[in-house]
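Ticket #4471: complex job returned nothing on first submit. Input attached below:
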Amino acid sequence: MDWITDWGLTLVVFLPALGAVFMALTPKGRDSTIKFWALVFTGLPLLVGLLMLGRYQYSDGGFQFETNLRWIPSIDANYHIGVDGIALPMVMLSLLVTFLCVIYSCWHLPEPHNPKLFLALCLLLETGMTGTFVALDLVLFFIFWEVVLVPMYFIIGLWGGPRREYAAIKFFLYTFFGSVFMLLGFLALYFQSDPHTFDIVLLQQAGVLSMTKTAANLIFAGIALGLAIKVPMWPFHTWLPDAHTEAPTVGSVLLAAVLLKMGTYGFVRIAIPILPDAARTFAPFIGALAAIAIIYGALNCLAQVDLKRMIAFSSVGHMGFVMLGIATMTDVGINAAVFGMVAHGVITGMLFFIAGSIHERYHTRDIPELGGLVLKMPVMGGLLAYSAIASLGLPGLAGFWGEVTALLASYNPLEGLDLTWFRTFMVLGGIGTVLTAGYFLWMLQRVNLGKVPAQWQDKNFADAQPLELAAWVPLLALILILGVFPKLILDVTNPAVVELTQLLTR
Amino acid sequence: MQIDLIAIGPEIILTAALCGVLLLDLFLPDNRKWLAMPASFAGVLATLAAVLYIAMTHERSTLGGMFVVDSFAILFKAVFCLAALLVFTISHDYLKEDTIHQGEYYVMLLSSLLGMLVISSSRDLIAIFVALELISLPAFVLAGLRKSDLRSNEAALKFFLFGVLSTAVMLFGMSLIYGITGTTNLADIATVISVATPLRDVAILSVFFLLVGIGFKISAFPFQWWVPDTYEGSPVPVAAFLSVASKTAGFVALIQIMFVAFIQLADQWRPFLAILAVLTMTFGNLVALKQKHLVRLLAYSSIAQAGYILLPLGIASATNQSRNREAFIAATVYLLIYAFMETGAFAVAIAVGRRGRGYQISDYAGLMKQAPGLVLAMAIFLFSLAGVPPMAGWAAKFFIFRAVLNAGGIWLAIAMAVNTVIALFYYAAVAKKMVFDEPAPGKVAFGTPPLLGTAITLAAIVVVVVGILPDLFGRLAEASALF
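Support reply: We reran it on our side without changes. The output follows.
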C-alpha cells in the first residue's frame, strides 16, 4: 500500500479542480503563469495516471485503487471511487485528451481569448469527466456528471461560433433534462434496494434489488433517457450537431473525445449490470436505435457542407456502433463498445483538432470551398487523410476493431435476445460502414485533392505548427498503435467485461 | 403563572435592542444615522448568543405550553437571526445611497425579526396569529419606505391589502377551530380532533381558511399576486428580507400547524397541498421565463421555490411518522439552503444596481468584463437556485425528491423534475447575459463596497461548501425534527 494506491485516484480527479482555484487566484493578464499552471495541473494527473497504470493488476476484473469514505450519511451517499478494466481506459483517455487540449490552447485561443477563464473551465471539466468514470456511488456519479455542464456551457457560449448561444443553452437544457430523470431513477433504485444503498457495486449484487418487472422497466427507462441524451442516441441527438459545430476547437475535441463517452459508460457501468432483466427487455430497442443512428448519421454526413458538422454527424454514427455493441449484452459486444469508445475518442478528437486548425487558416470550413489542401499544407492534409481513413474503419488503424467486433457481436447476441432483429442490425451496420467510407472518401476528395481554388492561390498558409503537432502526435500514435495491437485495450477491458457479463446471465 | 425568563430571553434582548435603536436614532445627527446599523447588528448578535445559550442547555417551555423552545424553535430562531444579519450587511450601502430613513428601517426590520423569533416557538393559534401580524405590519411599512417612488407606494399598498384580506380569512378559520375544539393550543387541538370525529368536516374547512393566510405569507399559488409588484417596488434589501425571512416564517407556521395540530386530517389536506405545490412551482417558473426585470425574475423564482418547499407537505401522512419526518427534513434543508442562495442573489442585484446601473436584466450585459467577481458569485447563486451541482441547490432538491419518491409520489417528483428544467432556462439566460453579451456603451467597471462584498462572499462560500457537504445542513434538520 502506498499513496498512489490509496489516493492516486482522488488526486487524479481533484488536482485539476485545485488548479482551477490556483488560476482563479492568479491576477488577470499574466497569461504565461496561467498557462503554466494549466499545464502543471493537467500534466500531474496524467503522470499519476501513468504511475497507476504501472500498478494496475491487469488480470483482475474487479475494482482497484478503491476508496470508500462516508460522505453524506443522512442520505447514505458515500465517496466511493475505483477503477476496473472498463473505467481505466476512459480515465486515461480523459486525462490525456485534456492535457493535449491545454497544450493546443497555449498555442491559440479563439476570440475573446481570456486564457485564464478558458483554461480554468477546461480544468473543472476534467474533474467532472474523470470523476464520472471513477464514481462507484450513484449520487457521486450524478454530481460529477452534472459538474461538466456549467463549464461546457460557458466554453461553447463564450468561445464558440456564430450561433454559439443557441448551441450552448440547447446543450445545457437537453442534458439537464435527461439527468433530472436519471436522478429520479437513481433514487428509485435506492428505495427498491434492501438494504437501501446508492453503491453501484452493491446494487449489482444478486438479491439486493427486488422489484416488479414494471418498476424495473420504468427505472431503466428513466436512467436510460439521461444516458441516451448524453451519448447521444437517435432521436435524442439534435443538440450534438449544434454543440459540436459551434463549440471552439478544444470544446469540440473534449465533447467528442470524452463527454459523449460518459453516456455509453453509464450504460455499461450502471444501467445494464444493475438492471439486467430490464436491459434485456430494452436491448432490441437500443439496438434498433443504434442501427438507425448508424445509417442516419452516415446519410447526414453525405449531405453536410460544413466540415465540423460532418464530423459531428459521423460521431452519431460511431456512437451507434458503440451502442450496438452494448445492446448485444455479450462480452464480445461490450469489449467492442469500450474499444470503440477509446478509438472514437482518439480519432474524432484528432479530426476536430484538424478541422479547427483548417478553419483557423482558411476562416471557412465549407467543404466545397476548400480544395487542394495537400498542395497548400502537405502535413496537415496528410494528417487529415490519416485520421479520416482511421475513422472510416480501415483495418490496421484504431477505428476498425471497435466497429467490426460490434457487428460480429450482433450476429450472436446474448441468449434470449431476438436473433433476427440483431442480425438485421448487423446488416444495417454493415451498410453503414460502406456509407461511412463513402462520405469520408468523398470529403477527402473535395478537401484534400484537386486544384487549389483561385481564392486561395496567393495565400500562404503555415503548415502544422510544432505546438499543434505536440498536441497531436500522441493521438496519431495511439491511432496506429491501437490499430495494430488492439490487445492493449482489450486485455485491460476483458477481465472486467467478463465479470460484468456474468452478472447478466445469472 | 411562573414565566421562564430564559426561555423568552432572546425575545427580551431583541426587544431591548429594538427600543435602544429607536432611541439612538432620535439623538443621532443626520450624518451619523448609519450607526443604527452596527447597533442593530450588535443587538441581533446578542439575541443569537442567547439562542445558542438555550441550545447548549436544554429545551424549555413556558406560558402554559404556548411558548416552546425546542430544537425546532432554536434552529429557526438562529436562521432568522442569521438572515437578518445578512440583510443588515446588504442594506448598509444601499440605504446610504438612497434617501431612506435608516433609523426607521432598522427598527422595522428588528420588529419583524421579533415576530419571527416568536413564531418559531408558538404552539398556539393566538400566538401564531400575533407573531404573524408582528412580522407583517412592519413589513408593510418597509415595502413603502421609498416614499417618493410611486412603485414603492404601490408595493406597500398591494402588500397591505392582500395581507389584511388573507389575515382576516385566516382569523376566521382560527375562530372556527376554537369553536369546535374549545382550545387554541396546537397539541390539544390534535387530541380533540382525534377523538371527536363528527367535527372533522368543520375542522377541514377551517384548515383551508388557515391555508389562505399562510399561503399569502409563503406566496403559494393563488395567493402570490402581490409578490412581483411588491418585490419590485420595495427597497431591494427589503425584497430579500421578504423573500427569505418572511417566507421562512410562513413555512414555520405552516409546518407547526399542519404537523402538530392537524396531522390527523393529513389524508384530507395532503392532496390539496400537493396540487397547490405543483401549481405554485409551475406558475412561478412559467411566468419567470418572460421577465425582463431582475427583481421580478427573482420574485417569480421565489414563488417557484416556495412550490418546491411545499411539495413534501403533499406527502404527509396521518399514521406514518417516519414519512412526516422525512418531509420535514426535506423542507427544512431546502429552507436553510434557500436562505443563503436567495439572499446572495439579491445582494448581487444590489451591488450591480448601485451607481446608476439598473435592475433590468439587460443592465447585466457584459458584466463579466467589469465585475468578474460579482458574475462568479451570481453564477453560483443562480445555478444553485436552478439545482446544478456542485452548488448547494442540488442537495435541497435531492432531499425533496428523496422524500417524495419514498412516499410513492412519482408524479409529484416528475412534475418537479420538469419544473427544474424549465427554471434552468431563465437562470441560464441571466448567466448568458452577464457572460456572453457585450456591455452597453458607457457602462464602466465598478467596485463593490467591502461590507456588501463580504456578505456576497460569505453566502457564496456557504452555497459551495454545503453543496459539497450537504450533511452540514442535513444533520441540523434531522436534529431539529418536530417528531
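The CA atoms of residues 231 and 239 of chain B lie 5 Å apart. Closing as resolved unless it happens again.
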